[in-house]
Amino acid sequence: METHILGVSEESLRLAKEYIAHGEVVAFHTETVYGLGANAFDDDAVLRVFSLKGRPADNPLIVHVHREYDISRLTDGEPSYAAALRRAFLPGPLTMVYPSEGKVSKYVSCGMNTLAIRVPSSPTAQAFLKAADLPVAAPSANLSKHVSPVTAQHVFDDFNGKIPLILDGGRCGGGIESTVLDCTGAIPQILREGLVTREMIAKIAGECGVYRPRSGERPKSPGMAYKHYAPRCKTAYFSAECLEKAITYYKNEVNTGTPCFLCESAVCALLKGYNTLDLGSSPEEMARRLYALLRKGEQQASLLIGIEPQQRGGVMAGVLNRMRRAFGVEHGTEEG
């Protein structure tokens, strides 16, 4: 199979619609990361997404729809706070989990009686979803556990020869996946942190919890697996307070390989003379740069050393979640 990268046009949208209708998989740009989409009603197409990614069978997918799609066709009701959140944040980087049973392929939600629904704001995603005019089940368009893709080339690197089409909308501006919010209870609960923060949600809904999975529990949301978003090179992880220890680790690697630090701008300034990848200064900048730099790091370095940013709160919750998982660190900030 030949994989084509095409911008949005009348012809590329016609092709995308045809591929989706016939059970194929199409990658497409969103404002967060690229998605790997299939007809959510088609069992075989959904299973093909799992197979292509090497995705665990218990890791649910998100259904994407265009802004005019009536999501009541996919849900078994919604609390009043969910309607208010939709008005406030959609289209945008927020995925909302609703009670739902039997509305799409059972494989989308891995047999659970819930469904995660997203309305992306990317013009490319909206054009594609409008052309398809059906729910599109789509995880991020990367091989399972690999770094999520923020350019069409990243998708091509993982799936060249395996999918027919990548709809190129340029580099993704958000940089980390959508916030996933459980809307099945009395108050909303964040299952996966992202660009729509707990504070933003609480301002609309009145309150907002953060779900903490228990050991061995079945994932309720994508991105809850322990090791995720990982670069294909050796990694180590340190807190900023352990910078001298990280430098020693770096120096030990220089004799046999090419180490590199991944850190925020303030720490990069302290590491002149060392190989560094600069995450930036603000939480939004770090979110936007993280995955691209992880991909760059795996190509250039034998060892990528992450230094945890010191900022906290808001969007940083999502950045730290992805960074810790990329380096195989669950909660702490010690070497991993």
What report would you give on this structure?
By secondary structure, this protein is an alpha/beta fold. Helices cover 31% and strands 18% of the residues. The protein contains ten helices and 15 strands. Helix 1 packs across helix 4 and helix 9 runs parallel beside helix 10. The C terminus is likely disordered.
Topology:
Blueprint: E1 4-7, H1 10-21, E2 26-28, E3 35-39, H2 43-53, E4 62-64, H3 80-89, E5 94-99, E6 114-118, H4 123-132, E7 136-137, H5 152-159, E8 165-168, E9 179-182, E10 189-192, H6 198-205, E11 209-210, E12 234-238, H7 243-254, E13 259-263, H8 265-268, E14 276-278, H9 283-300, E15 303-307, H10 316-326
Parallel strand pairs: 1-8, 2-8, 4-6, 5-9, 10-11, 12-15, 13-14, 13-15
Antiparallel strand pairs: 2-3, 3-7, 4-7, 5-6, 9-10
Helix pairs in contact: 1-4, 9-10
Helix content: 25-40%
CATH architecture of the largest domain: Alpha-Beta Complex
- Return residue spans where pLDDT drops below 50 for at least 5 consecutive residues: 331-336
How many individual helices?
10
Strand order of the largest sheet: 1-8-2-3-7-4-6-5-9-10-11
Biggest sheet overview: 11 strands, mixed
CATH topology annotation of the largest domain: DHBP synthase
Q: How many domains make up the coordinates?
A: 2
CATH superfamily of the largest domain: DHBP synthase
How are helices and strands ordered from N to C? EHEEHEHEEHEHEEEHEEHEHEHEH
The chain-level mean pLDDT equals 94
The geometry reads as: globular
The total strand number stands at: 15
Q: How large is the radius of gyration?
A: 20 Å
What is the distance, rounded to the nearest whole angstrom, between the alpha carbons of the first and last residues? 39 Å
CATH class descriptor of the largest domain: Alpha Beta
Q: Please state roughly what percent of the residues sit in beta strands, choosing from under 5%, 5-15%, 15-25%, 25-35%, 35-45% or over 45%.
A: 15-25%
Which structural class do the helices and strands define?
alpha/beta
